[in-house]
């Protein structure tokens, strides 16, 4: 039997069979590694990127012994590459039959031998490997990036060597390298004349580690530190392990906590790589944080960190790590002087040897929103409660210094994510003094603060926050929404700026129903904003940051013949992280084809563009003269990969836990081509949730199972699109036991028993019916006004001032 409360029921009858094991490719470290290996063409070199999650990263290139930054900590390249030898023959990298990029580095293969580099995660160490089918004397030569001494055998310590590096002014940079191996070896000096020409140019040290006897494998471990004894201890421990196997096991452990498996093998591989790349940015260099990008954004930026946090740490189930990142920024909140305009803000950037800056209007609300999402994933009201003083200081500071008479949040022209300035002064993309997404973030932060105070029992303070939010909503609708279009900003003269940028879509994405108050726009209004934004900005590879019809639009980011790259930074150039929030809106509104197109474009970029296995910061708006899409900016960007990952789980699969109210929401927006899915989803102290779907004969057959039985049930809410595009909600009280939900011909069944549903959203398909994506021309000089003269935008901006 069952009991109802409206359309809500508890499963009391038979149970569904348990779900099968994970897909074969995810069941073992070896299988996962084999799936993620990315074979590279011999036609052109490919960039190799790996991160150690401490303070360093590796950049190399296939077909080269030495190219790129190598293993870099701070501003010092410690190792630029390596070379391998079998007997007296050097293994020329460009002659390799195959080269593969793998999660920790790369491997070059020949018929009789192979060589590989493995950058460790969680340690400043790397392992070099050479293997031979026949037992032979094997050699490895590190190619040092700085002056390095001869390896010194440590007395009384078998097979341990120490290399001393020059002291650096940057105290993060190691001064010693401890070296160990899995086979007995000795070091020989290779005469320069005996080295291939490329190694003569690259080598700073010409000492080669050679096995004493013929072997099939040599693993050489290099541990970097400033403490010789600590480095030697770690090197000794590494020598007793099969490091490639250990690192594969660690990667499998990190990636098996949260995964999504679809019929599209390329998408699966791209998503796993995006998850892996995102996790690599989670570091502990300036306290727990998330680097923004490689190679030049290796700092903890407040805004970037909290946009990236859900797709980096929540989808992977690393909730304690997420809390540590939040706590580290809370500890740096600006306090002490109520008259300081930055009072209550978290830092814009935390970096080494640099003053901590607070010049960001949106970093703090992004952090509050990330803390809310973490709490919804973990169910930890107690952790959210500890942030009450932080939220109070933030709201008080904003109200004291930055609210206008209508309750909108004000800021300078370059204090949003579009923050580029001309020589540190005038904004390239002025968005003062009230940007649309800033108001949506302020609205979300006020609701979260109110919900937190309500739970704590401070109804007076909660009422104050709700009043501020209500004032903001009224002003927002009056000033930003004209009934047809959402303004990008309201300027200091109170004039609405209706130029097309992606920020209106970002504002729409922030209107989550679980925050408590009415959304800023209705579903129909949101659909109009989304569809019109696509018509003006959407390419298959992402959203232009400015309407191509606008005279300030720049079709190419780096175009030195015409302008500084920052002129194009937010004036046309595609930012890949924007695709994430676009997918959020499109999925919520049931625009499946449009969402799938953006996700497909991101997946292809992960696998095919430079560098393989990650996403760049930017892409040129227009393809080059040959029709090729060109990445730009940092070659690997945290929020790009994190937003792709978050969107896959939260929007395409539709997994949006609401554990603060004991609920699990699934609002899937799956491509029609996907007939099956399988997923493993971490849900805090309640363990993990397995979800599987099969589509057949026009029906959907969902199966759910938790890894443990829950004494207190959760409300499972499944919101499915019907044939018209409307969303229908089914609700079940669920203790985690195997559960099957069938949806066919408008009829829902739970464990074979018919179940009631309710319509929760009308179809919005008509808004997207005639949506046409942009088809840009191949780039040519002179096709756009900014390429018909030198520094066109700069001269106009400076002329106006």
Short description:
The protein is an alpha+beta fold. Helices cover about 30% and strands about 25% of the residues.
Structure description:
The chain is α+β, with helices and mostly antiparallel strands and 801 residues long. It folds into three domains: 4-22 and 674-768, no CATH class; 41-254; 264-651 and 778-800, Glycosyltransferase (Alpha/alpha barrel). Helices cover 29% and strands 26% of the residues. The strands form eight sheets. A nine-stranded antiparallel sheet has the order 3-9-10-11-12-19-16-15-14, with helices on one face. Strands 4, 5, 6, 7, 8, 13, 17 and 18 form an eight-stranded antiparallel sheet that branches. Residues 1-8 have low confidence and may be disordered.
Query: What gap, in angstroms, lies between the N and C termini?
Result: 75 Å
Number of strands: 44
Query: CATH topology of the largest domain, which one?
Result: Glycosyltransferase
Strand order of the largest sheet: 3-9-10-11-12-19-16-15-14
User: What's the overall average pLDDT, rounded?
Assistant: 94
| Biggest beta sheet summary | 9 strands, antiparallel
Shape: globular
CATH class of the largest domain: Mainly Alpha
Named CATH architecture of the largest domain: Alpha/alpha barrel
Strand content: 25-35%
Q: What is the count of distinct domains?
A: 3
The DSSP helix count reads: 19
Low-confidence stretches: 1-8
Give the helix level as a range of percent. 25-40%
Question: What structural class should be given to the helix and strand makeup?
Answer: alpha+beta
Radius of gyration: 28 Å
